[in-house]
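quick q for whoever's on today - can somebody do inverse folding on this one?? i tried earlier but teh output was garbage lol. tokens:
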């Protein structure tokens, strides 16, 4: 199982992209964890913004396609798309992830 952690500017944007990823079977599940506070440097200024953190769960087979989709669908010029390989899960859940990301 692979996870991608991605931040978005709004709940609506995060939910729309999450729904598309699940509909396309690129992700089996997406958790929208709510607001996080992000502090970062952008164009020589320190920014302090609220963002929505989304956790996309997918199979190793679909990870590359999901990464590409997340990058092209994101509104930010430089989106934070953090990939976590070899995430452990209970066997039944891991099988479910595999089944839900298979192309019909």
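ok took a stab at it. sequence:
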């Amino acid at each position: 199982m692979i996870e991608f952690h991605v931040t978005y500017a709004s709940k609506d944007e995060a939910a729309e992209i999450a729904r598309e990823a699940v509909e396309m079977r690129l992700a089996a599940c997406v958790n929208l964890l709510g607001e996080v506070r992000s502090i970062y440097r952008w164009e020589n200024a320190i920014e302090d913004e609220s963002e929505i953190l989304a956790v996309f769960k997918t199979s190793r087979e679909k990870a590359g396609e999901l990464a590409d989709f997340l990058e092209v669908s994101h509104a930010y010029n430089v989106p934070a798309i953090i990939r976590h390989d070899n995430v452990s899960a209970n066997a039944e859940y891991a099988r479910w992830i595999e089944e839900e990301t298979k192309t019909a």
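fwiw The mean pLDDT is 96. also The longest helix spans residues 11-23. so keep that in mind when u check it
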